[in-house]
Amino acid sequence: NMLAHMQKFLILVFGITFLFSPILMAQPNDPILVKPEVVGMSTETLSQLNQIIEKHVDDGAIQGAVVAVSRHEQTVYFEARGFSNVDTQEVLKSDALFHLASSTKPILGVAAMIAMERGYFKPSDLVQKYIPSFKDIPVAVLDEPQTRDISPAYVWASPVDNESGFFTRMLDRIWFRFTDGFIWHVPEHRLVPADRPITIHDLLTHTAGLAAMGLGTAVADWNKAMLGPNDEVLLHEKTLASFIDEVASGPLDFQPGTRWMYSGTIGLDVVGRIIEITSGQPFNEFVIENIFDPLDMRDTYWNIPSDEYPRLLDIPNDKGGWNKTDTSYFSASIGLASTAKDLLHFEQMLANRGTFRGRKILDESSFEMMSANHVGDLWSKESKGKSSGLGFGYTVSVVLDPEVAHLPMSRGALYWAGATGTLTWAEPTTGIAVAIMVQQPNWELNREISLAINASIIDRE
Questions:
Q1: Reduced to 3 states, what is the DSSP secondary structure of residue 185?
Q2: Is the bond leading into 145 cis (omega within 30 degrees of zero)?
Q3: Low-confidence residues in the chain, pLDDT < 50
Q4: Which residues are 390's β-sheet partners?
């Protein structure tokens, strides 16, 4: 009868719902978790990550975080804690989008290695081979003394508004002597020839002296052109093709290869432009085709689709300028937004020395080149001679001495962070990959998470 058939139907529906309720309840972007002991890690120790993140949320140091940890491509921890909006107390979801800032840079590193594998260029190639306007780029030095060329380490001054009086300049001279060359105004300068042309290797290792926050950057016409009337950055109105030609006018901040000084927003963009020239593809398309698609990074964007805006964190008093403005400037240095899951995929590939789920992204020899220390002791010199336990590869820090390094990772680990707070790393010797997604920088949080992950390893093989 009708009632009996209805009862059977309801029982069937209830049974299906019961059987598949975990699937129906799971967020589609969440990876499948395995018990940490399966890959030689401790569930009990890893669970401390919950308390670590919640403590920093409760203290107001961060409003929320999504943290993902895997080993041998098996995800053992994937949690969201805190709020996407503090005012409304909207709970942070695990598929939230985060602005990466300089966490964009390792993606350029991999893109460059892919281009090198295909024979598009070599690290030793001169930049001017591909962008002729870089020929004879000069170096900015202090006007006095005339008998010695001095390039200050940093010039902290706006290239647009730089009025300073006698006492400011006098204090700057004193400050300069005791701070390895920090200056708070743009001093009188002169230009000298570069000892040698800059190479792609120089750009990949931040040893080119291009846009490294020194005197050359402070006096450069391109630096002034990059800023609007209220010092807002106007790069989104440009393209790599149009702007990099402006940058080629220089000057450099120091002689190529003589220092390690971070080029936050421009140096690697030149490499991105060279990839465009040699591959015949726009840089963003090259990255999507060769990195994002094969790594299943479906939520990584330069231009975030408007229907995805609700997934972005709402950061109070955000002074980073990380707005939703669409850009035609696909930077290789900054500008991407992504999720914990996507960046975990990227780091899993690096932890596997270039492969992801059996698919080769990089030859192992390319991975070895990217993760080698290419700067000798130049990094240590920036720490006033005290060893930081770190070297620098192509776009990434490399852990040389785990006993000294600030973050307790294994030897050979490679990592980089963004100004908005994101930090990701890969440990080839342990197979561990980590993505810490926050939007307020917090190195104590990073250290505590790193300590807990390191302590959770039961089997080091």
A1: coil
A2: yes
A3: 1-26, 163-172, 174-175, 178-179, 319-321, 385
A4: 399
The answer to whether 314 touches 83, Cβ cutoff 8 Å, is no
Enter the tokens of residue 333: 């240095």
Question: Which residue's structure tokens are 């059977």?
Answer: 8
| Other CB atoms within 10 Å distance of the CB of residue 372 | 15
Are 270 and 247 in contact by the 8 Å Cβ rule? The answer is yes
Q: For 213-239, how does the pLDDT look when each residue is reduced to its tens digit (9 = 90+)?
A: 999 999 999 988 776 655 566 777 899
Q: Do 96 and 84 contact (CB within 8 A), yes or no?
A: yes
Q: Which residues are registered as beta bridge partners of 70?
A: 75, 433
Q: In terms of C-beta density within 10 A (0-12 exposed, 13-18 middle, 19 or more buried), how is residue 445 classed? A: buried
Q: Distances from the Cα of 374 to the Cαs of 18, 166, 172, 241, 377, in angstroms?
A: 56, 42, 33, 28, 9
Note if the pTM is more than 0.70.
yes
**For residue 23, what pLDDT is reported?**
34
Say which amino acid occupies 367: F
Residues with Cβ within 8 Å of 5's Cβ and at least 6 positions away in sequence, in order, are: none
Q: Are 405 and 388 in contact (CB under 8 A)?
A: yes
Q: What phi, psi does 69 have (nearest 5°)?
A: -135, 135
Across the chain, which distance is largest between two alpha carbons, in Å? 106
Residues with Cβ within 8 Å of residue 415, at least 6 apart in sequence: 396, 397, 399, 407, 409, 423, 424, 425, 426
